[in-house]
Amino acid sequence: MRFQCVALILLIVVCLATEITANKSKHKRYKKRPAAISLDEVPSEPSSPEQAAEEPEVAPPSDNDVIDNRVPLMDPCMEVRCGAGRICQVSDDGEPECVCIPNCPVETESRRKVCSNYNETWSSDCAVYQQRCLCDKGDAECKGPQYKHVHIEYYGECREMRECTEEEMADFPRRMRDWLFNIMRDLADREELTPHYLNMAREAESNLTLRWTNAAVWKFCELDGHPPDRSISRHELFPIRAPLMALEHCIAPFLNKCDSDNNHRINLSEWAKCLNLEEEEIEHQCEELTDAE
């Protein structure tokens, strides 16, 4: 009887041990493994927010992490300013240089034509500037040495101008002084002058002695182009000559008389004499020059 009890207990122990071993083998056999991904397959998006939270985020590289070996290309002509009739061109050595414009646009409208100081009609202002550049550089296409100083008298085809009489020429400096003062005062009222020249305009309004001198100096400074060199070239006279040619037939001979030494430039002393002003009343007050001194 006792033997049967012991045998029964052993049988129960063996059965329990077998069942435990089977359960462990079952769990091990069906343990989930990550699915294999082909090189040609693209991983799918997370199916749930929880799954997305478990996956680490990969931040894009910052600017500090990227090494840029590219060298920015700079145009050598970007800061170069060439005169009329010239363009900037990069030489074989990679240096910027101003050359004569090779071709001017073809103009068909008559209003684009210009009349030169030699009383010749040109197809455009570009053609005049181009010719002056070619002669300045001694190019074979230069029509003659005199064209080194060719400039535009006015826009439109050349026309017969009435002769300026001696009486008209004698009175012209006074009329020019008044015209310059009125223009300066009008620009001051419209606040189109810099503070430097605005102050000169206000002085001229309250002081009769400065009425004409300040206006003359202001216009001289305005015409003195880039760079300011204390003189006005025939080309720089264009803004004052061309608009008046149709109305004032004396403007061209008047400005020609201002260049007393015929060097194709008018200095401040010549400008003062031309306007019948005393030289001692005129002094250089150009904004660019006074700032640099």
The gist of it:
The chain is mostly helical. Helices cover 43% and strands 9% of the residues.
pLDDT averaged over residues: 79
Strand order of the largest sheet: 4-3-5
Number of strands: 7
Number of DSSP helical runs? 10
**CATH-level-2 architecture of one domain:** Orthogonal Bundle
| Major sheet attributes | 3 strands, antiparallel
Order of helices and strands: HHEEEEHEHHHEHHEHH
Strand content: 5-15%
Q: Within the CATH hierarchy, at the fold level, what is the topology of one domain?
A: Recoverin, domain 1
Which superfamily, in CATH terms, is the homologous superfamily of one domain?
EF-hand
Give the fraction of residues assigned to helices. 40-55%
Q: What does this 3D model show about the protein?
A:
This is Follistatin-like domain-containing protein. Residues 35-65 are annotated as: Disordered. Strand 1 (86-90) and strand 2 (96-100) form a beta hairpin. The protein has 293 residues and is mostly helical. Among the domains are: 86-155, Wheat Germ Agglutinin (Isolectin 2), domain 1, CATH 3.30.60.30; 166-292, Recoverin, domain 1 (Orthogonal Bundle). It has a three-stranded antiparallel beta sheet. It starts with a helix and ends with a helix. It has helices at 2-29, 49-54, 125-136, 166-189, 195-206, 208-223, 238-245, 251-258, 268-274, 287-292, and strands at 86-90, 96-100, 114-116, 121-122, 152-155, 231-233, 265-267. The longest helix has 28 residues, at 2-29. It is elongated and about 155 Å long. The protein has ten helices and seven strands.
